């Protein structure tokens, strides 16, 4: 299929620059993969543990390219009616009743009438395909949805079209940039993965995380940021139920700043540990391993 | 880079790389191979990292494949800043120098000091460059007719980065007090940097060996099995850490599988009252029917786990699985046995650390009555006797063990009786199928009364969970 629109980014460096400008600092891997997804017009599948900035990447991508973000949040039991489109059958019924009571229109007219644009409820996937302005379609936590939903996604993601039996096939006039995220709680189907570019996100390197902290919490002293990032890494090395995410690191930085602390020592850590660790067992474990008591 | 590209040009080289990736156990389809070729036309070929990440984006499908991929990528697309002619000269010079020459000892001392400085600074790029130099000057073995050999252990022995830890800690901590938070955090930083240095040395040795002896030979030896292919019974500590990450999603899946029954078919009985009520909004026509939710089927799972020494790696893993299952639903009861059986459910309360639980089971549970060698017959009897009510018509029974009875009574009838009472029963055996029934293994006899499944690695466990 010919590519219908000019790419959003001119080079990998351009991706880095524009994502950084909207507050998302990508590393080489992220920038390259985003660039390729844009160039090849393929969906981007981002997989990794919770809190590594998967959803954030889609949001940054939307604001960097001036697109609107359309989000489909997946959950167990998500179906076609919630993801793609639905007929507004209450309204259809009213239409039928109105015709019986009043104008007495014949069956054919009513039939054509009630399966028209007016009675169609557009859900995220169809909305994204029908838009003529630039769009980023975020399909969040794909692994939470049932396997059947993946089958649904296949048509949408490979041909960017949706078939509605009563209306015919809707083909995208302008291809949306698609980002799928997954926490890898279950393996997505081979067919779906094959259609996507794969990006596995892990927690950032120490240098990158320090840059993220300093760019988001600019008032924090660089020395403290360094100490903070190294402490978070030490926490992640413990086997915790829930490792601190990037956003929790940022929350922690903000907390330290608000409290006016200028170093992260034992008392400071004891009193603010709840910002990053949210399980009682994790807190006990961290306190024991890091010798807080 | 042109020097390493063989016949068939760039396309042929890519083809060879894709085949090596496949041979390492990463499935790459034809369409992915075609996509990989398209990547070459889009990325900046002079930027090696772009190529690495670009090809990874189309060839890989799971995070666990990445380390293997990186090793192969470094072999197929090596850094090209070392001309081949220069390498030949190096070899001639290095032939006379071994570690016994006093100059070398002095050199090693100098390099140790340099390494200490770099590790304290922690600049990854400089550390990599230093690793290359170190392999060049310290890692050469005796030249043989087949060419020059390089060894990472020579470098690591001469520099022994592990002994630098104390100095590194001093450098990082400055005058901060010891023993507390600061030291623990600094230790973690040091661990990371030393590990990065060792990895850099090994990668450099692989690169040079590949240049000397051909990359196919290196590729075969250097590529470690993927984490989910590691044999439970031979798993090392590092593998277990990898496996642990696979447990939580597996447990979730298993929990969903076991409770899937409740969502099979359509919704439950019609809720008449609710339907009539909703129909008022549409002029009395019941457009939407409402149904009562189906009764939730609460799966009950009984795990019976051999925790004797012979299956240590396996039982460690399955106990972690039990713990993860406990977090998802309450109807799990766990029993452990060696030559007697005890209930260990209480050690797996949600939120408890697995390592602690395992240590406590070893100390507190009554699993050893006699000599600490597994005795399946007695263990099953004790279980059937003391916890007769644990297995009922709603229960799924899961037995985990190698079925090696030390030539004691296997207790097959007791197990058969348990299987008959349970809704479903499975036995996961960490031994390869061909060894079942050999020596003191009673696996074949158990296999006649219970569905026995070979479960040697995480991949096989995943298969089992999927087909359940």
How are the SSEs placed, and which strands pair?
The complex is a heterodimer of chains A (293) and B (468).
Chain A lengths: L11 H10 L6 H13 L3 E4 L6 H11 L3 E6 L6 H4 L1 E3 L1 H13 L5 H8 L5 E3 L1 H7 L4 E6 L6 H13 L1 E4 L3 E4 L5 E6 L7 H5 L2 E4 L5 H11 L5 H16 L8 H14 L6 H7 L7 H10 L4
Parallel strand pairs in A: 1-8, 1-9, 2-5, 5-8
Antiparallel strand pairs in A: 3-4, 6-7
Chain B lengths: L8 H15 L6 H13 L5 H12 L6 H11 L7 H11 L7 H20 L2 H15 L13 H8 L5 H9 L7 H33 L1 H8 L14 H23 L12 H8 L20 E7 L5 H17 L3 E6 L3 E3 L10 H11 L11 H11 L8 E6 L11 H10 L2 E6 L13 H5 L3 E4 L3 H10 L1
Parallel strand pairs in B: 1-2, 1-4, 4-5, 5-6
Antiparallel strand pairs in B: 2-3
Helix pairs in contact in B: 1-4, 2-3, 4-11, 6-7, 7-10, 9-10, 10-11, 12-14, 12-19, 16-17
Please explain how this structure is put together.
The complex is a heterodimer of chains A (293) and B (468). Chain A has 293 residues and is an alpha/beta fold. Chain A has helices spanning 12-21, 28-40, 54-64, 80-83, 89-101, 107-114, 124-130, 147-159, 190-194, 206-216, 222-237, 246-259, 266-272, 280-289; strands spanning 44-47, 68-73, 85-87, 120-122, 135-140, 161-164, 168-171, 177-182, 197-200. In chain A, the strands form three sheets. A five-stranded parallel β-sheet of chain A has the order 2-5-8-1-9, with helices on both faces. A two-stranded antiparallel sheet of chain A has the order 3-4. In chain A, 36% of the residues are buried. The mean pLDDT of chain A is 86. Chain B is an alpha/beta fold and 468 residues long. Chain B has helices spanning 9-23, 30-42, 48-59, 66-76, 84-94, 102-121, 124-138, 152-159, 165-173, 181-213, 215-222, 237-259, 272-279, 312-328, 354-364, 376-386, 412-421, 443-447, 458-467, and strands at 300-306, 332-337, 341-343, 395-400, 424-429, 451-454. A six-stranded mixed β-sheet of chain B has the order 3-2-1-4-5-6, with helices on both faces. The radius of gyration of chain B is 29 Å and the shape is globular.
């Amino acid at each position: 299929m010919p590519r219908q629109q000019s790419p959003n980014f001119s080079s990998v460096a351009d991706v880095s620059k524009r994502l950084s400008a909207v507050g998302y600092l990508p590393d080489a891997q992220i920038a390259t993969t985003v660039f390729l997804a844009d160039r090849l017009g393929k969906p981007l599948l981002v997989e990794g543990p919770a809190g590594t900035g998967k959803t954030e990447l889609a949001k940054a991508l939307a604001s960097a390219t001036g697109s609107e973000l359309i989000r489909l949040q997946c959950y167990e039991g998500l179906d076609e009616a919630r993801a793609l489109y639905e007929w507004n059958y209450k309204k259809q019924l009213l239409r039928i009743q109105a015709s019986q009571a009043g104008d007495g229109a014949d069956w054919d007219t009513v039939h054509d009438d009630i399966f028209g644009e007016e009675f169609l409820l557009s859900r995220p996937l169809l909305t994204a395909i029908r838009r003529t302005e630039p769009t980023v379609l975020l399909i969040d936590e794909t692994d939470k949805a049932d396997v059947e939903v993946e089958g649904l996604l296949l048509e949408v993601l490979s041909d960017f079209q949706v078939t509605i039996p009563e209306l015919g096939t809707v083909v995208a006039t302008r291809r949306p940039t698609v980002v799928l995220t997954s926490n890898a709680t279950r393996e997505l189907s081979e067919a779906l993965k094959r259609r996507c570019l794969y990006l596995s996100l892990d927690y950032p390197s120490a240098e990158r995380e320090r840059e993220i902290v300093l760019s988001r919490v600019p008032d924090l002293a660089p020395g403290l940021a360094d100490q903070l990032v190294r402490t978070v890494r030490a926490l992640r090395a413990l086997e915790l139920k829930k490792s601190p995410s990037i956003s929790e690191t940022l929350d922690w930085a903000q907390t330290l700043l608000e409290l006016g602390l200028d170093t992260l020592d034992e008392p400071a850590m004891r009193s603010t540990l709840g910002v990053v660790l949210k399980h009682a067992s994790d807190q006990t474990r961290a306190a024991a391993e890091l010798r807080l008591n | 880079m042109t020097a390493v590209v063989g016949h068939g040009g760039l396309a042929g080289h890519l083809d060879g790389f894709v085949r090596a990736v496949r041979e390492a156990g990463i499935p790459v389809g034809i369409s992915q191979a075609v996509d990989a070729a398209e990547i070459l036309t889009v990325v900046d070929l002079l930027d090696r990292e772009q190529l690495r990440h670009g090809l990874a984006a189309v060839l890989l499908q799971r995070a666990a494949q990445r380390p293997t991929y990186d090793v192969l990528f470094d072999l197929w697309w090596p850094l090209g800043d070392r001309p081949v002619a220069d390498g030949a000269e190096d070899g001639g010079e290095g032939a006379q120098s071994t570690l016994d020459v006093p100059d070398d000892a002095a050199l090693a001392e100098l390099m140790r000091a340099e390494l200490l400085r770099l590790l304290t600074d922690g600049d990854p790029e400089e550390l990599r460059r230093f690793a290359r130099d170190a392999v060049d000057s310290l890692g050469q073995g005796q030249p043989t007719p087949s060419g020059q050999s390089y060894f990472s252990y020579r470098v690591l022995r001469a520099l022994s980065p592990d002994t630098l830890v104390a100095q590194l800690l001093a450098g990082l901590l400055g005058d901060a007090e010891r023993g507390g938070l600061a030291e623990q955090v600094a230790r973690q930083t040091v661990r990371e940097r030393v590990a990065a240095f060792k990895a850099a040395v090994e990668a450099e040795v692989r690169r040079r060996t590949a240049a000397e002896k051909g990359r196919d030979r290196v590729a075969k030896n250097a590529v470690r099995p993927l984490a989910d292919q590691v044999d439970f019974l031979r798993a090392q500590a590092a593998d277990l850490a990898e496996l642990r990450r696979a447990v939580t999603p597996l447990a979730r899946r298993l929990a969903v599988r076991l409770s899937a029954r409740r969502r099979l078919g359509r919704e439950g009985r019609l809720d008449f009252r609710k339907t009539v009520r909703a129909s008022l909004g549409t002029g009395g026509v019941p457009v939407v029917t409402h149904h009562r939710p189906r009764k939730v089927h609460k799966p009950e799972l009984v795990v019976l786990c051999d925790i004797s020494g012979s299956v240590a790696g396996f039982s460690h893993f399955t106990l972690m699985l039990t713990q993860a299952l406990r977090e998802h639903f309450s109807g799990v009861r766990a029993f452990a046995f060696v030559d007697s059986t005890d209930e260990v459910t209480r050690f797996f309360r949600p939120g408890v650390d697995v390592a602690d639980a395992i240590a406590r089971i070893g100390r507190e549970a009554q699993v050893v009555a006699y000599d600490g060698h597994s005795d399946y017959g007695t263990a099953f009897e004790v279980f059937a006797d003391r916890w007769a009510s644990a297995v009922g018509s709603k229960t799924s029974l899961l037995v985990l063990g190698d079925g090696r009875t030390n030539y004691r009574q296997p207790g097959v009838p007791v197990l058969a009786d348990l299987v008959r009472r349970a809704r479903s029963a499975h036995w996961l055996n960490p031994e390869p199928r061909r060894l079942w029934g050999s020596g003191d293994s009673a696996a074949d006899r158990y296999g006649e009364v219970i569905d026995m499944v070979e479960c040697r690695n995480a991949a096989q466990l995943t298969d089992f969970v999927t087909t359940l």
